[in-house]
Design a protein that fits this description.
Blueprint: E1 4-6, E2 9-12, H1 16-27, E3 32-36, E4 46-50, H2 51-59, H3 63-68, E5 71-73, E6 75-80, E7 91-94, E8 104-108, H4 109-122, E9 126-130, E10 133-139, E11 142-147, E12 152-155, E13 157-160, H5 167-172, E14 176-192, E15 199-205, E16 208-215, E17 219-226, H6 228-235, H7 239-249, E18 257-273, E19 277-278, E20 281-283, H8 298-314, H9 323-352, H10 356-371, H11 373-384, H12 388-402
Parallel strand pairs: 1-12, 2-3, 2-13, 3-9, 6-15, 13-20
Antiparallel strand pairs: 4-8, 5-8, 6-7, 10-11, 11-12, 14-17, 14-18, 15-16, 16-17, 19-20
Helix pairs in contact: 1-4, 1-8, 8-9, 9-10, 11-12
The chain binds flavin-adenine dinucleotide (FAD).
């Protein structure tokens, strides 16, 4: 083995979760060593980041750059475009119903990655070894990683931000419950004739959601969940033909559509580990939860993982990787991760299912949301920040009792 380094926190993975974890730990006063390849510059996706996530990104100093190149999400609507027996009315959620100007911002991933990388390079407390961790060595009082470039890094805690096939998670021996899904997401950006007025629309179809999300100007991003074969076939179509298909699917809601730039296909899976930390390794981002892209939950949940982990470790600075710290982290994350994964997987399954009771349950849920403003308010608040829907309902209840 060539070089050897010592640090407080080792972060494996240079996707958005790894870069954010490195920044948050450095800002909390820890020495951080990041291991991962060069940051991706070819990701055609955009990420809808909700208001609490933007507050976190403000704390690590990059939100203003992201907002300048993103678009606000003022209204989100769900349209039942299934041809099933039971269908529901469209449901519209407006940020101003809960006193907010916007739920969040839709940011191109190229911009997000660029700004995170620049911020990481700017922090003297972060060292970055480019490459991959090849081997993990776990002991009672520390953890060491060996990289493919013959560097050994020793730390008190390793943050596994190495994605859905996390090798760090495998090294801990944590069991993972996986489900392969008969779906893939076709991802692209497009321009359109009509103004989107900062409305995002999720059309529910029998293969999964078709989601348009605003970008600056008369442009939007698209995540279209299809069978893997159809997604690949659509991606291979000439732009003109694909543009017409998208326009038809949106019922010409935004007028004429023109596909712009690259079109990519992401296979979908669902994975949930039995626990979120063990043996000096804490899981964050897709190493801790993978589910279909419905309702813009994935990275927003990953940011809450990072916030909780930094809070727990800051309270146990003498040894942030000790068993008690990891048990505390896992306990804190469990309800949020289980609730989000469960809700997204159940909604996705109800779209794919021909089973009438599943369709009925989805339809009744959407009808109730469409008809009942307080219920909509509750779900909007919970969607932004777990617990805030309950907190608001409780304070309203107390107010009424007082009156
Ligand atoms: C189509 C689509 C749309 C989405 N839209 C949204 C949205 O609007 N809002 C939202 O919140 N979420 C969204 N998500 C989810 C979001 O994209 C993910 O949550 C996020 O990308 C996960 O980031 P990550 O850093 O955990 O994983 P990744 O981005 O997969 O990064 C993992 C990193 O680890 C590295 N790595 C792997 N192995 C090793 C190793 N051995 N050593 C070192 N490094 C390693 C990889 O090279 C990579 O850099 C969407 C997902 C999809 C598929």
């Amino acid at each position: 083995m060539g070089k050897s380094e010592r640090t407080d926190i080792l972060v494996a993975g240079t996707g958005p979760a790894g870069l954010m974890a490195a920044l948050a730990f450095a800002d909390a006063g820890f020495a951080v060593h990041l291991v991962g390849p060069a940051v991706r510059t070819d990701d055609a996706r955009t990420t809808a980041l909700m208001a609490p996530s933007l507050r976190f990104l403000t704390e690590i100093g990059i939100a203003q750059h992201l907002i300048a190149e993103g678009a606000p999400l003022r209204t989100m609507q769900i349209v039942d475009a299934t041809r099933r027996l039971v269908r529901s009315r469209p449901v519209r959620f407006s940020a101003n119903e809960i006193g907010e100007e916007a739920f969040g911002y839709n940011i191109p991933n190229t911009v997000l990655h660029r700004e995170l990388e620049a911020a990481v390079k700017d922090r003297s407390a972060i060292s970055w070894t480019q490459g991959f961790v090849e081997r993990w060595h776990i002991s009672q009082d520390g953890i060491a990683a060996e990289t493919d470039r013959q560097v050994r890094i020793e730390a008190q805690l390793a943050v596994a931000a190495d994605g859905r096939n996390s090798s760090a998670r495998e090294a801990t021996g944590i069991t993972v419950f996986r489900r392969s899904l008969p779906q893939a997401a076709l991802v692209l950006n497009f321009s359109h004739e009509a103004d989107h007025q900062f409305v995002s629309t999720e059309f529910h179809t029998e293969t999964g959601p078709f989601t348009q999300v605003p970008l600056p100007g008369r442009r939007s991003s698209l995540v279209w969940v299809l069978s893997p074969q159809t997604a690949e076939a659509h991606a291979a179509l000439p732009d003109e033909r694909l543009s017409r298909l998208i326009e038809e699917q949106m019922q010409s809601m935004l007028g004429r559509v023109t596909v712009e730039g690259p079109c990519q296909v992401y296979p979908l899976t669902s994975a949930l580990p039995a626990t979120f930390a063990r043996n000096r390794i804490a899981l964050v981002g897709e190493a801790a939860h993978v589910f279909p892209p419905i309702g813009a939950q994935g990275l927003n949940l990953g940011i809450r993982d990072i916030k909780d982990l930094v809070t727990v470790c800051s309270a146990r600075r003498e040894d942030p990787g000790a068993d008690r710290a990891l048990a505390d982290y896992s306990r804190r994350r469990r309800p949020d991760i289980l609730a989000r994964s469960g809700a997204v997987n159940a909604l996705n399954a109800s779209l794919l299912s021909d089973f009438l009771p599943a369709q009925l349950a989805r339809s009744i849920g959407l009808e109730a949301l469409s008809a009942l403003a307080p219920l909509r308010g509750f779900f909007m608040r919970e969607g932004l920040q777990p617990g805030s829907g309950f907190a608001h309902a409780l304070s309203r209840g107390r107010e009424q009792v007082r009156r």
